[in-house]
Amino acid sequence: MKKTSIISKFLTLVLVMTCILGCTTTAFAANTNDPPYGYTYDDAASNRTVYKYFYYNSLKDSYVAKRTFYSSGNTVSFSNGTVVTSSSAGSGYRYNGFNTEGVFYAITSKGELLGIGGNNKVITVLNSGAIELCYNSDDLAVSVKTSSGTKSLSDWKDVSDTDNNTDNQPNLPNNTNKNNRVEVYTNSAEEMVYDAYQGNTLKVSIILSPNGKHILNVTDGVRLSDILKGVKFMGIDPDYNVYLYETNGTLYRFKFGNWYFAEKVSLGSAFKTYKTDENGFISQIVSENETYSIKQLTSSDKWVASKTYVVTKDTYATLYIKNTVESHTLTLTNGVLTLDGKEVNDTVSAFGFISETTFCYIRNGRVYKATISSPTSMKRVCTGASSFRTNDVGLTTTVVLANGKTIKIS
To answer: Which residue among 35, 226, 271, 350 is least packed, with the fewest CB closer than 10 Å?
Structure first.
């Protein structure tokens, strides 16, 4: 009898889950390149927690908020104000959130798990025992902790702690006390506002447009981006630096006060999301394979050359080109000159870079010049040469002839 009861309860749960998923519209289908994500924040202006489910709209080339729910205290409501439940276990991601299919879940004070699919019908998924929701790196609930173990929201099977990613949590609600903080809210124009305070002073105010693409630094009147993907890709760190993840797949950082130049932040794998501290500042950046503290983040721009220069070491010289990470190397081995590993000519005695596009070499006393793009198409400059002279950044400027005279080369 007991066995039959367990099987019956399991079948009931399967039917409930099937019903909820069946009511979810096809618009919530996951895109493997731009998967959906959840976004949870405390709205400082309305004193409520906001839950949004975003999916990527290829026609608009940005993420769109498909569904929105609110909570305040023990009340959870639809975006139109209709109450889902007035006996929620609490406000915040622990008890309320979306799954990967866009179903919204809420845990009540009685341990019930409520599910609301695309038709907005409230269904009781679990009558008792629900404790808290568990999330993936896209801030979407994938399982629920219950008094009888952790269950997958997709098929209600048991989930181990290893598979459950229990360390993943959505962005924490922001603390609106008098300390340094970031307050997030939606204004009357449906724009997301991020106000970062230092004590009682507004240090920087950032606005995200309703379509999720445009970012404006209101404090300094500077537009920081016009190609964002959505709200998940913006945040401010404790030093008031602003981070943006753009459609081109690059994470940028604007150092506070330097709003006209964005550093490229180098990550070992693709950006996924960021985590905030109790005051709403970014504390961690999460990539596909790693989680980085703000202190660990480094700019890839440090490898960009601030000027064009050449570093010469015995048998080879490397050219570094201004405003790029590009470099080219000339190497002389037993009289054979190569450029980036490809043979240029033999019986060479000296070589050097003239500019970011041109190099030269001496072969049997004759000076030849060629371009980096076409290194074997050389042009003879002069004869009777013995060596080269360089300027203070290592570029070749002068040919020294065997008779001691010199010729400028460019």
So the answer is: 226
CA distances from 292 to 50, 233, 266, 286, 296 (A): 26, 16, 11, 6, 6
Specify the DSSP element, H or E, that contains 202. strand 201-208
Contact 114/122 with Cβ under 8 angstroms? yes
Residue type for position 221: G
Tokens matching residue 288: 């596909």
405's tokens: 């005279």
Give CA separation, 253 vs 37, 122, 298, in Å.
Answer: 22, 42, 10
Give me the long-range contacts of 160-169 (CB less than 8 A, separation at least 24). 164/134, 165/134, 165/135, 165/136, 165/137, 166/134, 168/134, 168/135, 168/136, 168/137, 168/139, 169/93, 169/135, 169/139, 169/275
At residue 333, the 3 state secondary structure works out as strand
Q: What is the pTM of this model?
A: 0.71
Residue 32, C-beta contacts closer than 8 angstroms, at least 6 positions apart: none
Look up residue 144 and give its two tokens. 């629920």
One-letter amino acid at 171 equals N
Per-residue pLDDT tens digits of the chain, which is 410 residues long: 444 443 444 444 544 555 555 444 433 444 557 889 999 999 999 999 999 999 998 888 889 999 999 999 999 999 999 999 999 999 999 999 999 999 999 999 999 999 999 899 999 999 999 999 999 988 999 999 999 999 999 888 888 754 444 445 565 544 445 689 999 999 999 999 999 999 999 999 999 999 888 999 999 999 999 988 888 888 999 999 999 988 777 899 999 999 998 888 988 888 888 889 989 999 999 888 889 999 999 887 778 888 999 999 989 999 999 988 899 999 999 999 999 999 999 999 999 999 999 999 999 999 999 999 999 999 999 999 999 999 999 999 999 999 999 999 98
CA distance 358 to 398: 14
